[in-house]
Amino acid sequence: MANLAQVYLNGEFLPPDQARVSVFDRGFIFGDGVYEVIPVFGGRLFRLPHHLSRLDASLSAIRLRNPHTPQEWNGIFTRLLAAGSGDQSIYLQITRGVAPRDHAFPPNITPTVFAYAQPLKYSPPEQLAQGVAAVTAADIRWQRCDIKAIALLANALLRQQAIDQGAMEAILVRDGVVTEGAASNIFIVKNGRLVTPPKGPFILPGITRDLVVEIARAKGVPCDELPVKIEALSAADEVWLTSSTKEILPITRIDGRAVGNGKPGPMHAKMFALYKEYKQAFIQGQAD
Ligand code: PDD
User: Exposure string (b/e) for 59-86, b if CB count within 10 Å is 16 or more?
Assistant: First the structure.
């Protein structure tokens, strides 16, 4: 982290080693806060209004006021991004603030606001060319996975479970249906149709997921938002994960078995090309 030029903390831009947060911050003590990760392509914040509106939804779900206007956020991000180059990502988090440890909300508390920019680490080309492995795992998380909460213990345990089994991602299953990945959304392809689980309390409303659905609908690619049973996952022609930093990545092995013919499929090639086309138009200011 020390190679970051500066971070933003509570109104100040500081070298990371000078940014200090109290040990009594409720983010540290309770995981009481929310976050966002926003990719920056060609110097432009990708789908910024979507990320800020999801941030508003997360904040209101945990009963915190947004400490900044969109213009103020934009100002903070622009200053953080100026120190870097190439494609970057913004991480931002807001916790309820500092108070003596008590589960109940303390009155008149000031939120802690933290943000930084870092270079975007794209998936290695071989992952795109060959796809990645995933394992299925019981979704042991709570019932408000739609909130982008910083309390990610279950997600971290599940991701590590996948790594320990030689895979990249855990595909989470609740009551026999796929919810999402430990840090991604999931799509399957069957007979030329895309299917992704519907939004609701058990998944994060992914910005990349929504964009893939939007592009599919605009380009006439059949796409359903419907529950995906574990049997449908096993029988899928293709499976993908989506996220702001991994974009659209094919999953070609699940629990040690090949997905379809074990190679990234033609629908992935098509949708990824359309996504990259959209991204290029965005970089050139021709898409929002
Ligand atoms: N995670 N579901 C979960 C549980 C996630 O953590 C993420 C992203 C997504 C994909 O959402 P989006 O397309 O908006 O990035 C879905 C981020 C990247 C992270 O925690 O680093």
Answer: beebebebebeeeebeebbeebbeebee
